Amino acid sequence: MAVGDRGSQGTSPVERRAVSPQLAAWEGDFGTQYTDRNVADWRTRLPAFRHMLGGLRLGRVLEVGCNRGHNLLTLVECLDADADVIGVEPNRQALELARAASPRVAVVRGHALELPFKDGYFDLVLTAGVLIHVTLGDLVAVLHELHRVTRRYILAIEYFADEETPVVYRGHEALLWKRDFLAHYRSQFPSLQLRRQGYWGPEAGFDRTHWWLLEKPGERSTA
What we know:
Elements: H1 13-16, H2 21-27, H3 29-37, H4 46-53, E1 60-64, H5 70-78, E2 84-89, H6 92-101, E3 105-109, E4 122-128, H7 136-149, E5 150-158, E6 165-166, E7 177-178, H8 181-188, E8 193-200, E9 209-215
Parallel strand pairs: 1-2, 1-4, 2-3, 4-5
Antiparallel strand pairs: 5-9, 6-7, 8-9
Helix pairs in contact: 4-5
């Protein structure tokens, strides 16, 4: 499915770039096993998403690393009926589950290092528990891709720590890090404006995550 194609001569982003050990894990059995475990009632997240996005005019939204589509379904319920809700996912099994989740979502295969979309194609780009799995060496490139494809808003829902904190994840090292992602975004894009922020726990359908809604300069905020 070609959604906002950036004209990359027909090759997928996974094929255009050498696969990192982290991406290989999520594309392979490790990612499939996560997908099998990652079954939740997406409706529990509705109040949280309505709080984070309430009042924003969003016609086209992208989730990078959508897995089986829980957040995509939540976005469909939160946004106007004519809004485009799109996901990117590297794991094939998760991608097929997300595609089957609703006729109102579109899901393409890809990853955060090379998003197959034009500059400024989306009104909002979000990650939820995705940046935590990116090495520090790749994080700058990922943030620039997310910033590139959004016209206006960025939403990050991620584990937080004041300093870089590696976490052994299901017996694996070099697959999860807690960080101050707001500080990382600001270091790369000082003009980004923080519009909203907060914390979600299990009662909101999340796993003890902080969140930040950022806006590019140049347009009047609706927040």
